[in-house]
Amino acid sequence: MEDNMYFELPELIELTQFGGDFNRYLEAIYELFKRDFIDRQPVFRGMRLGLKKYPLSQDGKEATFWHMTSEGDDEDSRMPDLRRMERIQWPAPMINSSTHPYLKVWENTRGSKTNILIFHDAENYLVVLRKAKDYIIPWTAYLIEHQSRKDKLMKEYENYKKQGAI
Fold first, then answer.
1. Cβ(26)–Cβ(80) below 8 Å
2. Half-sphere exposure of 49 (CA within 13 A, CB side)
3. pLDDT tens, 69-83?
4. Which end of the chain has less Cβ packing within 10 Å, N or C?
């Protein structure tokens, strides 16, 4: 693959940059999220993005922020995920530049919900957007850490591509 095809992502923001002070780190990560998703609001192929604000956390942070920076199946007991937090600056550029030839973009259905997935292959990073009636919600974003999960996603992408959509 040619270098000019690669999609460059911002630098990681690491806890060590804050002397290991998790509260300072969390606030800095949240400010970056606010900049990218509240102040600037990314656009996916001309369509505005809403934000899943509720339920707000105890400290007033939006649900989308917690989905992008924590992990766990149960909403009430999700745990902060440093790998997700380090990459908080990645989702917005991937959404805004989703037509870049390096990024893989497709749709899937989970239950009754339709998602748009944006995948950065070299970084194994996935952004998930959820379709709503007349807007799109940034849902979550995370690092794909297991090859079997990546294989499953790539198979889903290839099948979607064969259908000729997006």
1. yes
2. 25
3. 999 877 667 899 999
4. N
